[in-house]
Design goal:
mainly beta, 160 residues, four-stranded antiparallel sheet, six-stranded antiparallel sheet
Length: 160
Amino acid sequence: MSILKVDTINEKTSGNGVAIPGHVIQVVSNTHATETISTSSSFSDTGITATITPTSTSSKILVLCNVCSAGVLNDSGADANGKFKLLRGSTDLFEGLQRAYDYGNSGSIIFGQFLMSWLDSPSTTSATTYKLQQKITAGSSIRVCEANNPSLMHLMEIAQ
């Protein structure tokens, strides 16, 4: 058995630094506060995006999306739902559903927080952009940042 005793640890001043497996190496955050409404059944950008440059090809990126005011609307029917899709560049990573239902069939609407997380392995040290898209699948519209409630995207590089 060996024991290592250290009085001081100095920060490395060059190279990629210290990467202890499982630890966060860097965090990038971006805020989006512009309302984006879509009536399309095809995915379109929400404006929620962030870019990170990983320090190692073995790193994983933990993507956290907090859409503070996500909404789906159906003006006259019972069912309103839409999908949010997370992408790395043009690569689809994950889809989540936002749904409202009105049993009275007078029109349904939901506005609330929508959270999404994904652990990605981009295998690159190049700048990598993640973005969130939306589409309506039933109803009349889907939107983010209703009443300008800001949404957030956090990217955390995790050492491996």
